[in-house]
Design brief:
With 262 residues, this protein is α/β, with parallel strands linked by helices. It has helices at residues 21-48, 66-74, 85-94, 113-116, 129-142, 173-181, 205-222, 237-242, 252-255; strands spanning 2-3, 7-8, 56-60, 79-82, 101-104, 122-126, 147-153, 186-193, 228-230, 247-250. Strand 6 (122-126), helix 5 (129-142) and strand 7 form a beta-alpha-beta unit. Belongs to the pyridoxal phosphate-binding protein YggS/PROSC family.
Length: 262
């Protein structure tokens, strides 16, 4: 099998052999970065008494080119994330043959729902009823399998902060989760958060993720299949894993801080 980015299909025996010198250098750089992140995840799981298999690494490829996504697939990455539809849609189209699960993690406008459901397997940023309705309508129009949805939790809103930030207040999570679960075409998978920048939990990701774990437990009590907890990024994945995160979203620690292409 081949693809239109590098020719040989990532993961095949002839993939790395077909890379140019520059491509190979990037491939090796990404591989080294992945090794470091994998060690961090494994160590965090061990410290928390959890099997490594309980945590999925999602590599956030936003602002980086499709070529990097293909290299990551060649290195065994199975899950990638994007946060802007205008960048993600063409990238996903170029990578359509790769064995990847695509996550959308950015704030999502309702008028982008039709495009996002064409390539996303899971949307992490569901935070309002109107978006639930737009995603469901887009799924029906696309005649695709159910779309995984996470309720984005804005922990700072619990303290009256972050009024204009994306996400719902903790007190509103169960209602929105129920709406997703009751909507044909959508599948309630769990919850997501970003460590807050304001409020009493700001600067304390361990406490923030512990609070998310409480919310996730309440959601699971009402919806047992909603087991996904998306939390933790490059700087705080250890605290997220300690609190029970099932998926960590890592960008910089894998892709680096070089000037992005595309």
């Amino acid at each position: 099998m081949t693809n239109d980015i590098y020719g040989p299909f990532p993961g095949g025996a002839d993939f790395s052999a077909a890379l140019t010198e520059g491509q190979r250098a990037r491939y090796e750089q990404l591989g080294a970065n992945l090794d470091v992140v994998e060690r961090r995840i494994a160590d965090a799981c061990a410290a928390a008494g959890r099997p490594r298999e309980e945590v999925t690494l999602i590599v956030v490829t936003k602002t980086y080119p499709a070529e990097d996504t293909a290299l990551l697939a060649g290195l065994g990455v199975t899950d990638v994330a994007e946060n802007r539809d205008q960048d993600a849609a063409p990238k996903a189209e170029r990578c359509v043959e790769l064995p990847l699960t695509w996550h959308f993690v950015g704030q999502l406008q309702t008028n982008k729902a039709r495009s996002v459901v064409r390539y996303s397997d899971v949307v992490h940023s569901v935070d309002r009823a109107r978006l639930v309705d737009s995603l469901a309508a887009a799924v029906r129009a696309a005649e695709r399998p159910p779309l995984g949805c996470l309720v984005q939790v804005a922990l700072d809103k619990e303290a009256g902060e972050g009024e204009h930030r994306a996400g719902v207040a903790p007190a509103e999570v169960l209602a929105l989760a129920g709406r997703i679960a009751d909507t044909p075409g959508l599948r309630l998978d769990g919850v997501m958060t970003v460590a807050p920048l304001a409020g009493p939990l700001a600067g304390d990701p361990a406490r923030a993720f512990a609070r998310l774990a409480e919310i996730a437990s309440d959601v699971r009590a009402a919806h047992p299949a909603a087991t996904m907890v998306s939390a933790g990024m490059s700087g705080d994945l250890e605290q997220a894993i300690a609190a029970g995160a099932t998926h960590v979203r890592v960008g910089t620690a894998v892709l680096g801080v070089r000037s992005p292409l595309g």
